[in-house]
Design goal:
With about 575 residues, the chain is of the alpha/beta class. It contains 18 helices and 21 strands. Helix 8 crosses helix 10 and helix 8 crosses helix 14. Bound molecules: 2 iron/2 sulfur/5 carbonyl/2 water inorganic cluster and iron/sulfur cluster (SF4). InterPro entries: 2Fe-2S_ferredoxin-like_sf, 2Fe-2S_ferredoxin-type, 4Fe4S_Fe-S-bd, 4Fe4S_Fe_S_CS, Cytosolic_Fe-S_CAF, Fe_hydrogenase, Fe_hydrogenase_lsu_C, Fe_hydrogenase_ssu.
Length: about 575
């Protein structure tokens, strides 16, 4: 341990700690901008590029960046001197000299780390004006907008993409004033290996990386009298949307969310959870089929489009192991435009299916050409949790005082198994609840597979089914997924089934969720919200959903049968 004194207060800290870490232990706030320490997912942005966190150290002539300066025995630090505060303000003023001044119309207005810092430091004038960078905005993809004029070169996105996700799309290109963060050869995003996981934009402090905003297109559909506009909401949205309206992370706002969508004017408000139950019917059937017929194992879950794109690029030699199931929201679209359209007696061409998702990759997924039927797309438009919050605000709805409302039927009924899709481990737990009963013909009394839960990077469990040990793995974050898949490719690990989600924490940590600003406790609270919603349900196994049973009876026939294959399954492309 090392003894240091910060602003006159003594503290002992582990050797090797930075000044910033020591100050945090004393609850002394040193402002930061590029720094980001997401301990739980082992991401620390060490760029030390912005110099906002400078402090004075006794015996040193120059200011020291707190995030990158290790403490030493007897070190005396002052974080609040006139010199350090003035230097921080100058750093921000210099950043603003080459930053657009369009805060009022910016995507991140009121939610931007640079804006907050400028306000906190009392920046009241644009002191330095000179050359401004002007880069074309990259709107090439369905998911992500890249606006390098707003980039402050903090490198958080690079660290996230390269070290956590191991996709290696983003890096610093050029030198000096010409430096930008982008893909090799300045390729537009849609031509790169980007998975559209959106984790880069969830850590971007400004609007340099944002989602493609579809809000005005959704309003257009709602205002088109010829269209029947059907909306579905993903499991993870209900435990995060409340944050946009000042509620605690993890608050379960399912009823208010439904009420807000009905107020906005959607013709039908349905639940992706219904389709998650449907996915379990298909995926558990596929698993049982592979198990009983010597099929390829392990089976990999396929509901996460970021993960799907990752394995298509990086593991193209293993495309026969992921489940062929479409993701739940795509299954929903396929069922809505066939079964539901018939039931409502409307032309599927007049139906617009909108998905509210915690994810930006779902936007790209919806545009995949094979995810449609008879020339019409399963899902027409995807908006994120943040975009839904924007719509609620635009409509002038007082979210907090809304009375709870229920989803419409027949595609609004769901079980606890479906809601846990939103947290890492939930998809495989839901599949096990069903596969266990199908294989053993016995009732599963304890439906909670604790070993598969939690924020740990990779989890494992062995479940004995009919005397056979079924080995399960769960991983989240693409770097963890890569490590696991490489072991399988090398024959060093064997499993029967694996769940993989691209985003840390699973969908609750999706790139379209309310910004966590570096506080991963928020993700843990959302996970708690997910499991509390599961516990509150009477039915907790997908195969018990009465509306799902009815769908098979009235329309689909057998799970994993011919009609189901036609509508609910897909294929992958290298
Ligand atoms: Fe997800 Fe899924 S769980 S992928 O994270 O399988 O986005 O919430 O909607 O489709 O159900 C996302 C969440 C979501 C699908 C489901
Ligand atoms: Fe990398 Fe994901 Fe961002 Fe694409 S979306 S650049 S894969 S972090």
């Amino acid at each position: 341990m090392v003894n240091v004194i910060i602003n006159g207060k003594e503290i002992q800290v582990p050797a090797g700690s930075t000044i910033l870490e020591a100050a945090n232990m004393l609850n002394i706030k040193i402002p930061t901008l590029c720094h980001l320490d997401l301990h739980d997912i082992k991401m620390v942005n060490k760029a030390a590029s912005c110099r906002v966190c400078v402090v004075e150290v006794e015996g040193r002539n120059t200011l020291a960046p707190a995030c990158a300066t290790p403490v030493f025995e007897g070190m005396k630090i002052k974080t609040d001197t006139k010199k350090s505060v003035k230097a921080r303000r100058t750093v921000v003023e210099l950043l603003l000299s080459d930053h657009p001044k369009d805060c009022l119309i910016c995507e991140r207005n009121t939610n931007c780390d640079l804006q907050t810092l400028a306000a906190d430091l009392g920046v009241r004038q644009i002191k330095f004006e000179g050359e401004m960078s002007e880069y074309p905005i990259d709107k090439s993809s369905h998911s992500i907008v890249r606006n390098m004029d707003k980039c402050i070169l903090c490198r958080r996105c690079e660290t996230m993409c390269n070290e956590v996700q191991t996709v290696n799309v983003l890096s610093g290109v050029g030198r000096g004033f010409e430096t930008v963060v982008g893909a090799a050869f300045d390729l537009p995003m849609h031509e790169t290996n980007c998975t559209f996981c959106g984790q880069c934009l969830s850590v971007c402090p400004t609007a340099a990386l944002t989602e493609v905003n579809n809000v005005s297109k959704v309003w257009d559909a709602l205002n088109d009298e010829d269209k029947v506009v059907v909306v579905q909401t993903a499991p993870a949205v209900r435990v995060a949307l409340g944050e946009e309206f000042g509620m605690d992370p993890g608050s379960v706002v399912t009823g208010k969310m439904v009420a807000s969508l009905k107020n906005i004017g959607f013709d039908k408000v349905f639940d992706t959870d219904f389709a998650a139950d449907l996915t379990i019917m298909e995926e558990a059937s596929e698993f049982v089929h592979r198990l009983e017929h010597g099929g390829k194992l392990p089976i990999l879950t396929s509901c996460c489009p970021g993960w799907v794109k990752f394995f298509e690029h990086q593991f193209s030699d293993m495309l026969d192991i992921p489940s062929s199931c479409k993701s739940p929201h795509e299954m929903f679209g396929a069922v809505a435009k066939t079964y539901l359209a018939q039931k409502m007696d409307i032309d599927p061409e007049k139906m617009v299916v909108i998905s509210v998702m915690p994810c930006v990759a779902k936007k790209y997924e919806a545009a995949r050409p094979e995810l449609g039927h008879g020339g019409t797309k399963d899902v027409d438009l995807v908006i994120t949790t943040r975009e839904l919050a924007q719509m609620i605000r635009e409509a002038g709805i007082d979210f907090n005082t809304l009375e709870n409302q229920d989803f419409d039927n027949p595609l609004g009924e769901s079980t606890g198994a479906s809601v846990i899709f939103g947290a890492t481990g939930g998809v495989i737990e839901a599949a096990l609840r069903t596969a266990y009963e199908w294989l053993t013909k016995e009732t599963l009394e304890n439906v909670e597979f604790e070993a598969l839960r939690g924020i740990e990077g990779t989890k494992e469990a062995t479940v004995n089914i009919n005397g056979q040990d079924i080995k399960i793995a769960v991983t989240h974050g693409l770097g963890n997924a890569r490590a696991l898949l490489e072991k399988i490719r090398a024959g060093e690990a064997e499993y029967h089934a694996i769940e993989i989600m691209a985003c840390p924490g699973g969908c609750i940590g999706g790139g379209g969720q309310p910004y966590h600003h570096g506080n991963l406790d928020i993700l843990k609270k959302r996970i708690e919200g997910i499991y509390s919603e599961d516990r509150s349900k009477t039915l907790r196994k997908s195969h018990e959903n009465p509306m799902i049973k009815k769908l098979y009876e009235e329309y689909l026939g057998e799970p994993y049968g011919e009609k189901a294959h036609e509508l609910l399954h897909t294929h992958y492309v290298a």
